[in-house]
Amino acid sequence: DGGITQSPKYLFRKEGQNVTLSCEQNLNHDAMYWYRQDPGQGLRLIYYSQIVNDFQKGDIAEGYSVSREKKESFPLTVTSAQKNPTAFYLCASRSLAGFEQFFGPGTRLTVL
Amino acid sequence: QKEVEQNSGPLSVPEGAIASLNCTYSDRVSQSFFWYRQYSGKSPELIMSIYSNGDKEDGRFTAQLNKASQYVSLLIRDSQPSDSATYLCAVDYGGSQGNLIFGKGTKLSVKP
After folding, report:
1. Contacts of B32 by beta carbon, 8 Å cutoff, 6+ apart
2. Is some CB atom of chain A closer than 8 A to the CB atom of B92?
3. Which residues of B22-37 are buried (b: 16+ CB within 10 A; e: fewer)?
4. For residue range A59-112, what is the model confidence (pLDDT) as tens digits?
5. Of B36, B43, B92, which is closest to A99 when you measure between CB atoms?
6. Which residues on chain B are in Cβ contact (under 8 Å) with A5?
7. Subunit contact B100:A101, Cβ cutoff 8 A
8. Which of A48, A60, A71, B79 has the most other CB atoms within 10 Å of its CB?
9. Beta bridge partner(s), residue A108
10. Would you give the end-to-end CA distance of chain A in angstroms?
């Protein structure tokens, strides 16, 4: 089955800790994205990458970091510098031949 | 500032009726328009894409685009309780990066 997987589904973090969210896709898509969704808010872009070893900041990159060492993988690290990290995190991917973005199931992060 | 506006709802329709969801966007250079369905606690699912003025039909769904008025809509015919979800409108940034701007979504409730 082709698709996008995210893990874990739920994540609990203590204040001051860094955590890494996983995103893997086997759709052979070149572009990958990380979004954050808060209740009553639209999706806000954190980081995106169109090719391996290259990525760009989105609208709310502060307190987050990413890497793109493989085409299939785009992990997101939520650092202790992110002041309000509790949110629903969504990973998406896209073929460069089109504009449709497809989403993984998401990771719900809660800071304790 | 590029914006996508949607009525937050909730929009309540009886089963079997037509649900009409609307979206306006601010950037005239946008060329690609998408509707996503998001069930509570789940990730967004792409249900329609439209690129040209006019109507595009797919089963019970019809997307309508009017670029002159910067307006895109989604009609759901014969609405079912299973259509109850939040519907997100997404519009491309207008560049080659393929980034999307998302509205905050309209919550639809279909009453049996």
Report:
1. A99, B49, B51, B91, B92
2. yes
3. bbbbebeebebbbbbb
4. 999 999 999 999 999 999 999 988 899 999 999 999 988 889 999 999 999 998
5. B92
6. none
7. yes
8. A48
9. A10, A88
10. 35
What lies within 8 Å, CB to CB, of B20 at 6+ separation is B73, B74, B75
Would you give the DSSP letter of residue B99? -
Give the three-class secondary structure for B96. coil
Does B100 contact A at CB distance below 8 Å?
Answer: yes
Q: What is the pLDDT of residues B13-62, one digit of tens each?
A: 999 999 999 999 998 888 899 999 999 999 999 999 999 999 999 999 99
What is the C-alpha to C-alpha distance for residues B36 and B47, in angstroms, rounded to an integer?
5
Q: Do the Cβ atoms of B98 and A90 come within 8 Å?
A: no
**Residue B65, min C-alpha distance to chain A (Å):** 16
B43 and A90 within 8 Å at the Cβ level: the answer is yes
B70: CB partners within 8 A, 6+ apart? B24, B25, B26, B28
CB A23 within 8 A of CB A32: yes
Question: Do A40 and B44 make contact, defined as CB atoms within 8 angstroms?
Answer: no
Q: Which residues contact A66 (CB under 8 A, 6 or more apart)?
A: A34, A46, A47, A49, A55, A74, A75, A76, A77
